[in-house]
Task: inverse folding
């Protein structure tokens, strides 16, 4: 994906799917390296914050290679992972996780209204073409009282931390990606934070889609975030 100009609309949809198909084989390795091994802890934290457990019907939206699906299944929930990149799903299916994996677009889920008690989504908000459409779809497939747990990268606010983070995220991560995976894709990773709405905007979008009890937890000095909310 050439990223001098960030794509939008259908161009973004296609470019993101092709990019994840390309980087799927090294995706897990890169995640562990980039987050210094913390990404799995953040997923555990997110699932704990919305109390995923036996009896839950979990949709893991943009499940990728299945890390969140695996953890949710290990907690005794019934899990369906959904993603539009066939190669990411191939990675998920190869892991023998006790979950169904389905290829679909997050903006048009092939699911009945109110079929889920929890929706999780890890590190994908930046990649969607329209967040209001996605949030409306999550509200549709959730039962009343259903919970969402969304994990995403973030940019630290405070000066020194922000500078150090930028050096790492904007310079070192693309270099590492170039060595071990795909340089363009790992240049896109920091650039794609430009798609992320502010905390206030995200809060307003979730409220408009019908969610309440919206909470944000910052992770690693603001380098990542967990958003949780409940369908009212
Ligand atoms: C950064 S990966 C995250 C994977 C996984 N959730 C995790 O925690 O590692 C983003 C995923 O979002 C998926 N994705 C992006 N846009 C999508 C869409 N519109 N519908 C379904 N999946 C989408 C990509 O294919 C990719 O697997």
Result:
């Amino acid at each position: 994906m050439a990223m001098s100009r960030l794509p939008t609309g259908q161009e973004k949809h296609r470019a993101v799917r092709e990019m994840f198909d390309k980087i799927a084989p090294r995706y897990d390795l890169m995640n562990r390296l980039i987050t210094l091994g913390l990404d799995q802890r953040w997923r555990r934290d997110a699932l704990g914050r919305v109390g995923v457990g036996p009896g839950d019907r979990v949709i893991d939206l943009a499940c990728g290679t299945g890390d969140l699906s695996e953890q949710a299944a290990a907690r005794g929930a019934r899990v369906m992972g959904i993603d539009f990149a066939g190669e990411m799903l191939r990675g998920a299916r190869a892991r023998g996780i006790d979950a169904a994996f389905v290829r679909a677009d997050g903006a048009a889920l092939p699911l009945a209204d109110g079929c889920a008690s929890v929706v999780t989504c890890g590190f994908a908000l930046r990649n969607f073409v329209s967040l209001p459409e996605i949030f409306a779809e999550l509200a549709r497939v959730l039962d009343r009282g259903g919970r969402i747990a969304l994990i995403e990268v973030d940019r630290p606010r405070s000066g020194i931390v922000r500078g150090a983070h930028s050096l790492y995220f904007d310079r070192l991560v693309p270099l590492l990606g170039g060595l071990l995976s795909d340089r363009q894709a790992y240049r896109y990773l920091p650039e794609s934070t430009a798609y992320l709405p502010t905390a206030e905007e995200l809060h307003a979008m979730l409220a408009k889609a019908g969610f309440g009890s919206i909470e944000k937890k910052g992770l690693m000095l603001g380098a990542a975030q967990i958003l949780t909310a409940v369908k009212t």
The chain has one domain: 9-231.
